[in-house]
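Field: COMPLEX_INPUT
Field: COMPONENT_COUNT = two
Field: RESIDUE_TOTAL = 633
Field: MODE = joint
Values follow.
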Amino acid sequence: MATTLPKFAPERRNWLRSVTGISGVQLLVPMVVALLLLLAIVGPLIAPEDQVYRSDILSALSPPSAQHWLGTDEQGRDVFWRIIAGAQSSLLSAVAIVTGFSLVGVIVATLATLGGKWADEVLMRIVDAALAFPPIIFALGVAAALGPSLNSAIIAMILTGWPVTARVLRGVMKETMSQAFVENARVLGVSRTRLMLRHVLPNSLDVLVVKWAGDVGNTILILGGLSFVGVGAQPPSAEWGAMVTSAKGVIATAPWAAFAPGIAIAITATAFGLLGDILQVRFNPALRKR
Amino acid sequence: MNTLTNSPVRQSDGRRPDPTTLLSIRDLTIDAGTKDSTVRLVDRFSLDMSPGDRVALVGESGSGKSVTARSIMRLDPDFRLSGSIDFQGQDLLKLPEKQMVAVRGHKIGMVFQDPMGALNPLMTIGEQVMEPLRIAGVSRTEAERRAMAVLEELGVANAATRMKAYPHEFSGGMRQRVVLAMALISDPSLIIADEPTTALDVRVQEQVLTLMDKVSKERGLAVLLITHDLGTVAGFTDRVAVMYSGRKVDEASVDALFTHPAHPYTQGLLQAVPRIDQTVPRLLTIAGAPPHPANRPTGCAFNPRCSQAFDLCREKLPELRPSPEGGVVACHLYPVAGKEQGS
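Field: COMPLEX_OUTPUT
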């Protein structure tokens, strides 16, 4: 009689895992990010316009109900639909801003590391000077020059955002430069430019990816602040940050009007932050699950 | 003097260059630091190597051996170098940086101490081994073929599959083979190995050394081995140069150095090596520590630690002179030819 081997449950083949390399709870993150991006694209199309923009003072500040899922704001506009409609301006502009200034930061940091002592010194002093500009004041200046709009807020934030990225990344690149494999590549006759692009930059970008994802959430908040001082998105735009700041005054009587868009920002910021962590793992072959 | 060589080139010191010389370092002096405070790391270091020569450069940490090796490749732009480093008839110290890039990795290969950190974690093994060839403009298929050949020569099994792997999938010994493959793929005539086995465990050290021995013999490759481990030296090299506090103090064939070490420092080093064929109650050590390069004693730098030091050692720096065993030694115990030793 043959002894029966203990049976193990067959390993579940998860197609999502085989495609993305991640599994379990981690899968929630790209799904939420994908949903947010989908909202950013179709949100303004599916949200009924009169719910988003039309004032209805009679039903102002009504609590969440079957009719208004997340209640209404001080103008009687439906908070739920405003969040859906505002996903586009909030999310896409934040992604555009952070991607924009990250690119500038990468270029400046690369030039500073590549160019030797003098280039490094000059570029870092420029970074110091740029860091000294308070973003809000700078945005006011840009708004005065270009007229207040979401676009001038985006330009102002790219112009004030890059120095931090440049500084952080330059530090990381300096550290990567001192790694043994960079020295080894130099010894093999790899030119400075190639050394930078093939060895130093790819091994420094993990920090940037995390910073990029974290910056998206932060940027949505600052965009809201800019709308508040009248420089960014103009009323009656349903930009999330603008919604939070305009509902601040009624936070005691109608907390939903401020909290709902606040939670939307928090979910977005968290999702992008976690996405950064996952991307970091995906970029590093040693951390990658096989 | 030598009428057989009719080479028109004369070296600065008037000697005719040996036509078989691969590398000739003359009076290499390395200074570091600012103009106000200069530290002399290496003082008038000279060494000759013929093709296929295997020479060890031995010394304690801070003796200047690694700095010397790195300076052959001109890796530290902040150091001020003087003297000359003739490699295949070119003075590397006078070469523009652009041409120096072509020497690095193509004519001279270098292997470092830490095989764990020496590979880019984001690039496959294959890409990294091929890189020197790809820079030189070799086609991808040809580079792949040669990378596979050199990895197989170095005992990496399944080279074709392993080339697609990432460094973290390799053990320390395997990584050192990959690093060696990167240094060898362009078929250099000299390999500088800076403590290549220090970070490896003893069994893997043995494997890597045996491999280097085999490869250098088969290829007629000259090897400059930088080490502080005299055990490594004995089995692998033909000649040993001993450095102390930035200067070459002793140079001899391996046999002469191990049987009749000339310099008291070399004698001390040898007594500190555990030997399998001798039983000693306790291993001897050299008392004290080497001086800081900014604060060397007058006279011979070794005199405070030397048991045989006498007055002259504390006053005058000994120059290199022929040693009884056919090498050179910088020590007042050995009288200059034609002069009596004063005591």
